[in-house]
Amino acid sequence: MSRFILLTCMAFLSAFVGISWALRGFPTYSFSPIGELRPTLTATFGDESSKAHARKIWEAEHTTMSDKDPKLDAVRMDALQAGTAYAMSPCDDTMKANLIAATTAYARGYAEIYGCPNPAMGMFCSEKKRDQANAAYSTPLDARVKAALAEAFEQKGVVKEDFPADIRPTVLAFAGPGLWSDPSPVCLPRQQATASRIWFVVWAVVIWQIAAWAFAPEPETRPPVPINSPGYGTNERYSVDGRVRQRESAIATLERPYGARCTGEGRKQFISGLDEYYYQRQNQMERYPETFGKPGADYIATQWSTGEDRRIERLTQEAYAQGYFTLADLNSVARKMVETLVRNERVTAKACG
Fold first, then answer.
1. 283 and 309: one domain?
2. Would 44 be classed as within a structural domain?
3. What's the pLDDT tens digit per position in 188-246?
4. Residue 334 falls in which region: left (phi positive, over 0), alpha (psi -120 to 50) or beta
5. How many domains does the chain have?
6. Using CA of residue 102, residue 105, residue 108, residue 109, what is the dihedral sign?
7. Helix extents (H) in 66-187
8. Which residues on adjacent β-strands are paired with residue 238?
9. Separation CA 137–CA 295 (nearest Å)
10. Which of 18, 28, 99, 102 is most buried (CB neighbours < 10 A)?
11. Is 277:247 a contact under the CB 8 Å cutoff?
């Protein structure tokens, strides 16, 4: 009898520990090549340097300011969009391919400026070019790109071998800890689902053994699955903040002076601003129902129905009718939503014709 009680306690303890670990998402601890970050700013109360530093942080988090290099801006926006999309849908093969391609292009841009064949042997390369490369990749827009890539690679599913061998060291500099430590070709949601199934089987076997030893007592009923899902995940607060920034950026884009919309850098920023807003909006409108079902569809539809969104829609319709852009100017994802939005609009002018 004492042996039975001991085995029963051990079995329940093992099941409890395993299931608790599964519910927390199977956290692990691993070594990261990045050491502890320590503050480097020294300022006193009222010092202008502290205000400048705060302004720089605000710009990095809320704007898409860059060095106005058209080629680099295109690469930056591709990496930003690909990283954000993969973080939301890490098990989608298309999103994975887009992330690998965009990250590779972003890293190659840095490597071209640096001009160092082997960054690991940087002591033998030009310090001047290294500083130029670091400066070029230190704009507020680059800060957003690096944050998006780091969040994307935290979702696993991508390994170093997915990138060309010559660019891997540079990719690692922008990928964040998700690609440095414990990389896996299996995306995080599938890892968790697989591990959950394994632990469920183990738990079930243990319980079956106990039931057999205890003359098959009636099993405990599992608690019912909640019917009313909120329609979003645990990191939704970050997505809410992201939508606020995307609206601000879109309104700023659509309120640009008319003369700055048709040529040169102004034209590129105008189209890029429309692309980013409608890409993120369309992507979320598709992904939330896939992930959370009808509650997700209802939730995300409400999120993209604010007064500011209606204002952006109206300004977009006016810009389309006046000929400041065509559907062919937009990427395929953004085009889906804009095409529906301007379906009943008649083009009355060719402002950029």
1. yes
2. no
3. 777 676 666 666 666 667 666 766 666 555 555 544 334 456 888 888 999 999 999 99
4. alpha
5. 3
6. negative
7. 70-88, 93-114, 127-136, 140-153, 168-175, 177-180
8. none
9. 40
10. 99
11. yes
